[in-house]
Amino acid sequence: MREEGEGYDDRRDEGRRGTRAAVHAASGGRLGAAHPRQEGPTDLRLVPPALASWATSAVMLDAAPAWVTGTAVGCLVLAGVLMTLRVGRARRVPGAMTGGRSGWPAVTVAAVLVCAAAAAVSAGLHGADLRRGPLPGLAERYATVIAEAEITSDPRLVRPRVRGPAPAPTAVLIEADVRRVETRDGATLVTRTPVLMVVDVERRRSSSASSAFSAGDRPSPWLALLPSTRVRVTARVVPPADGGDTAAVLRVRDPKVPEVVGEPSAAQRLAGRLRAGLREATDGLAPDARALLPGLVVGDTARITPELDEAFKETDLAHTLAVSGSNLTIILVLLVGPPGLAQRVERRGLAPRLGISLRTTALLGGALTLGFVIVCRPDPSVLRAAACGAVALLALATGRRRSLIPALATAVLLLVLYDPWLSRSYGFLLSVLATGALLTLAPRWSAALRARRVPPRLAEALAAAAAAQALCAPVVAVLSARVSLVAVPCNLLVEFAIAPATVLGFAALATAPWAMPVAKALAWCAGWPAGWIADVARTGAALPGAGVDWPGSWPGAALLALATVALLLAGRRLLRHPWWCGACGVLLLLAVVQPPPLTRVVTGWPPPGWRFAMCDVGQGDATVLAAGAGTGVVVDAGPDPVLVDRCLRTLGITRIPLVVLTHFHADHVAGLPGVLRGRQVGAIETTAYQEPVDQAEFVRREAAARGVSVTRAAAGEERRTGGLSWRVVWPPADPTVVPEGPNDASVALLVRSAGLRLLLLGDLEPPAQRALLRSPAGPLLGGVDVLKVAHHGSAYQDPGLLSRAAPRLALISAGADNTYGHPAPGTVAALRAMGAVVLSTDRDGALAVTGEGAELGVAGD
Question: Which of 451-455, 644-648, 766-770 has the weakest average pLDDT?
Answer without folding.
Answer: 451-455
